[in-house]
Amino acid sequence: MSTPERDNDIQRRAFLKGAAAAGAALAAATTATAAEEPRPAPPPAAANLAGDTFVTRPGSDFMVDVIKSLDIDYVAANPAASFRSIHESILNYGGNRKPEFLTALHEESSVAMAHGYAKARGKPMAVFAHSTVGLQHASMAVYNAWCDRVPVLIFAGNGTDATARRPGVEWYHSMQDPGALMRDFLKWDDQPASLQHFAESTVRAYKIMMAPPPEPVLIACDIELQETQIHAGTLSIPKLVLSAPPQADEKALREAAKWLIAASQPVIVADRAVRSAEGVRALVELAETLQCPVICTGNRMNFPSTHYLNLSENRASLVANADVILMLEVADSWGVLHGLGDPWKDVRRVAKPDVKVIHITLADFLMKSNYQDMQRFLPADLPISGDAETSLPPLVDAVKRQLTPARAATLGQKADGFRTQHREMKERQKAAAALGWDASPVTTARLATEVWNAVKNETWSLVVSDRVSWPKRLWPTTEYHQMLGGSGGAGVGYSAPAAIGAALANRDRGIFSVTLQPDGDLLYAPGVLWTAAHHKIPLLIVMFNNRGYGQEIMHVQRMANLHQRNPKNARIGTMMWDPHVDFAKLAQAHGVWGEGPITDPNAVGPALARAREIVKGGAPALVDVVCQLR
Amino acid sequence: MAIIVATAALVLTAGAAVAQDTPAGGSAERGQKLFVDLGCFACHGTHGQGGDRGAGPRIYPNPFPWPVFQHMVRKPRRDMPAYTEKWVSDQDLADMYAYLLSLKAAPAAKDIPLLNR
User: Fold this and answer.
1) Which B residues, 56 through 115, put their C-beta within 8 Å of a C-beta on chain A?
2) Handedness of CA A298, A303, A307, A312 (dihedral sign)
3) How far is A605 from chain B (nearest CA, A)?
């Protein structure tokens, strides 16, 4: 990594004519050199002509050095004037490598790409966003990342010096406090007033961002800091040392182990519990040691679907009969024990009244007031603050230390029963998947099965895995990277850009990426298809095209029936039937290989095979399949 | 979102019961159109196969017996909204029931190679 050095001179053009002009320019250089940060005084009017002066070591070069020090591979952004200097510095000073500039066509896409990338790669991507309008575009995607506990390193260009703003648009695009726009769902933000301040705050932001639970952070990049000469003589970049993740209190873990060992029907509910393959292995070890079934919510791949203790589809009966439930970073713990009817809001308890709940979570450390992502309050019987993944190995140790041979033998006798339950669960899932097998529009179960057949011989990753539940139920999932969950905040518009961001990370690791892409989601910002084509990001995009907002038609229909009015009108404003969107053409228009629309279920497999070869060749490909609503 | 589900007991009924007391004069063709127009397909699928992510239970094959089917539409339990005679006539119901009965059974899972690889 290069280190910025002080550059004392504003260079003058050699063709400056006349001693007076030259003298004036020299005076300007002297003044500028002597000036204090953040900005040198402007040259005298006589020399203040376009092209008279150069800024050969802009502050944005140093900003790039800071970003490089953090091992950031990519920065996604729409171009914008408020960060034009750092944009240029990345290209020409930084060589457009680590980070490489990814051309995005919407700030929401930039952030969602970074969101998907971070989950696939295990490290963050950076995003540049324009002040005001760019941050406003980005904000929904930042909220998704916040709810999903995913790091995104956001830089916002902004002009703080009112006297330096160009009249008109630059005023519209400046803020007094950029972080205020999304501070409710940022872990930290700052607006540095000097380059040294920038270095320290950016490294601090990275460190805070990555400490579990990881979350987005924002650093404002002042325009004047970016665009004026580096004048500080002793700039330095702090070293990055990440904090050890917070492990739960060992005494509390011993108590949890005691409860779990003594329980007759314990259950583990894992939500955003693990972040790595090591986390999966630790959870498997815990479940096997206790012979305890596991329910995965689908927000992370916590536990192999092929393991006999993964009984996620038996959730209702497992929770109903449980005497102890171990929750691991469960966002909606109340929802595990209860249901709420709609529209009458009647509460249904689905667990025993005396079930004991152990909850290992960091939620207490990340609570803010305005946005209600904390979900309904459930007082756990044994609440344990700690990072679930970090706390799993010591919990396993605590269980093993307390587990007597006799109790271990007793627990071991449960295994055959769970194997039978697992086998029967899988058979039920297959039987359900067969229903409507030859239907047109294509059933989502048929779609998922055809896609599995297309990718099963690849080292695959379903980069957005919550829009259709069938892969979770039918695909043999064994590795953490194979299913990356969903948006977190259920903000529509996540799936397409997040899939492309994750596919970028997978491309660099030799993993084949596939996604089941909802039509309504893609239409929020379809320009991201061009980004995938332009940057040659291989991704098999299989449209889950139900030609509408499937969930919303059900909501409106329910209201119509409740109000005793015409249910046939529920399609107005919810369905996209006249005309149908042609997604193959949409893909082609953005430079992506596209085929469809396909309505014959027997035509899906051959089309996927063709698309798979395009993806294996290093490009994105889209197959549009017209599907059932759900 | 809140999901639309029938009671577990009635779902089991759907799986076990044999259609009986079939109404006379139902038009499967008209019933198919109504099934879409009234939005039944949104939760239950166009072939009654049920919806993903808890949208709605399957109602085919082995649909509820005709009296139960009528009751489930008129006075559903839990989250399914009630369809009253104001907007869905008895004839409409008979037509939709005829449509469900007209559907060709899907192959069994064991006979679908893709589900067994």
Assistant:
1) 56, 58, 60-61, 78-79, 81-84, 86-88, 104, 106-109, 112, 114-115
2) negative
3) 10
Does residue A434 belong to the interface with chain B, where contact is any CB pair within 8 Å? yes
Smallest Cβ distance to B81: which of A437, A456, A558?
A: A558
Give whole-number Cα distances, A485 to A449, A516, B96, in Å: 18, 12, 37
List, for residues A196-218, the tens digit of each pLDDT value. Answer: 999 999 999 999 999 999 999 99
Residue B49: which of A427, A435, A456 has the nearest Cβ? Answer: A435
Q: Which residue of A has its CA nearest to B104?
A: A436
Nearest to A536, CA basis, from A455, A617, A482, A609 = A617
| Domains of chain B, start order | 8-99 (1.10.760)
Q: Please give the residue of chain A at the shortest CA–CA distance from B60.
A: A435
What pTM does this model have? 0.91
- Three-state secondary structure call for residue A218: strand
Question: Does A572 contact chain B (CB < 8 Å)?
Answer: no
Residues A112/A178, Cβ–Cβ less than 8 Å: no
- Chain A hits for B42, CB-CB cut-off 8 Å, are 550, 553-554, 557, 570, 629-630
Closest CA to B46 of B61, B57, B32: B32
Q: How far apart are CA A381 and CA A252, in angstroms?
A: 12
Give the separation between CA A340 and CA B14, rounded to whole angstroms: 24
Domains and CATH numbers, chain A: 1-243 (3.40.50.970), 250-420 (3.40.50.1220), 435-626 (3.40.50.970)
Residue with tokens 């990277």: A481
Of all residues in chain A, what percent carry a pLDDT higher than 70?
Answer: 92
Q: Which residues of A touch B104 (CB under 8 A)?
A: 438
Smallest Cα–Cα separation from B95: which of B37, B8, B16?
Answer: B37
| Closest-approach residue (CA) in chain A for B53 | A469
CA distance A256 to A395: 8
Q: What is the mean pLDDT of residues A595-610?
A: 98
Q: For residues B91 and B97, give the distance between their C-alpha atoms in angstroms, rounded to a whole number.
A: 10
Q: Which residue has the higher pLDDT, A46 or A611?
A: A611
Q: What is the ipTM of this complex?
A: 0.85
Residue A484, judged by CB atoms within 10 A of its CB (0-12, 13-18, 19+), counts as buried
Q: Report the alpha-carbon distance of residue A27 to residue A34 in Å, rounded.
A: 11
Tell me, what's the pLDDT at A48?
Answer: 58
Q: Which of A80, A89, A100, A202 is nearest to A153 (CA)?
A: A202
Residue of B32, B37, B38, B49 to mutate, interface with A, max A Cβ within 10 Å: B49
**Predicted confidence band of residue A40 (pLDDT cuts 50, 70, 90):** low
In terms of residues, how long is chain B?
117
Contact status, residue A469 vs residue A298, Cβ threshold 8 Å:
yes
- Whether residues A438 and B106 touch (CB distance < 8 A) is answered with yes
By three-state DSSP, how is residue A307 classified?
coil
Set of chain B residues whose Cβ sits within 8 Å of the Cβ of A434: 106-109, 112, 115
